Amino acid sequence: MSNVANGSSKKGTIAVSLTNYLDSGCIVAGASGLTLWAQQFGLSSFAVGLLGAVSANAFGSAFGALIGGHLADKYGRKFIYTYNMLVYILGVAIIMFSMNFAMLLAGFLITGLSVGAGVPASWTYISEMADPKTRARNIGISQFAWSCGPAIIFTLGILVSPLGLFGNRLLFLSLLIVAVVAWNLQRKLDESKDWEAEQAKLKASGAKPAHPMKNAFSNLVNIKSILFLVGVYMFWNLVAGAMGFFMPFVYETVGGLTNTQANLLQAVLWILTAAGTYFGFAKFGDRVSHRLLFFVGAAMAVASWVVLTYVGMSWLGLWTFVVLWGISAGIGAQAFYALWSTELFPTQYRGGVQGIMFFLVRGSAGIWSIIFPVILANLGFTVAGTIMIALLAISLLIGVIWAPNTRGRTLDEITKERYGNLEPNLVKKETTGVLKESD
To answer: If you average pLDDT over every residue of the chain, what do you get?
Structure first.
């Protein structure tokens, strides 16, 4: 790749990574003030769960991804970046000025839709613009931004905690400002060269692209890839999603911590996640076995919840949990999902299939966001924690057993091995392309 292309890739990665910052940032901004909103509006446990369900943590982003992934394939990655941040700005503005539960719910939903729409396009764009030898690093940078969101927002949450609910509104103001900056940078990006080349092929052939839903389930290779990726990401995300939105609530209601103490724990956890992402995944993702790196992160995640569930919420248990989970999340399922989901599908429906998978993953998180507070309230934390351990163990097994061999290879090479020579609008029905063992 030329220096110009490398420069363009770096600029694009930084600009697009702001989407990930805003994704995680809005989740934890809501989470850090969840108790305050509940007290302000007298919310029931069901209403609290509903906020989590429609947010960027669950259904909101699930439906947004379904829409945004299809639009990114049909109209281009740049199309998403031209308009999507404006929707995000509207959503956080509504949350900032919420005077009742209906406004708060609407703001969470709109923000979630925007976040979901941006995620498939962002990971796809970064992967398509990257050199194959630095693809994991670039994806790692985007995940680093995702980790910085909670680290910064929880830290700011501690600073503004004396202001109560007004302080939480200020957190959303900070996200609005970053969103304006992101929109200004992203709307100036060049279009993905891979997408432009694919559109040129389609135009030359006269073929009409099939809907991503049809493409996604058109052959066994796609179905295997979807099952693998959803399995790796969904079971992990059920735990991470509940943590992202409810963990301060758990610290306060189960552990008896103050809001400031809960936010401090989460701030440290996310600082460690950011460090794990940058010095772990981004540094070694292009150099070492994906299977080995994934196993290390997944095993640490399981161990962290074993400690929290059975050792308890003493300060020793809490800090051990924070260190183990924080580092593991940096080299865990989400980073690998972001990488593998862009590698295992052809350009012509890469964004659309990501949208479908993200819909399934965040949709399941939406259901779990309603169930988790009920389990917590009625069956206790030990039962809820044991379920979390089982979910993480399933993700670990799926990722370790079926990790694909994609490191250092171009997207075209991966596609040709898995699908053969694709016609612009047709995936071969019979192919020997299967998930290979990692190096």
So the answer is: 86
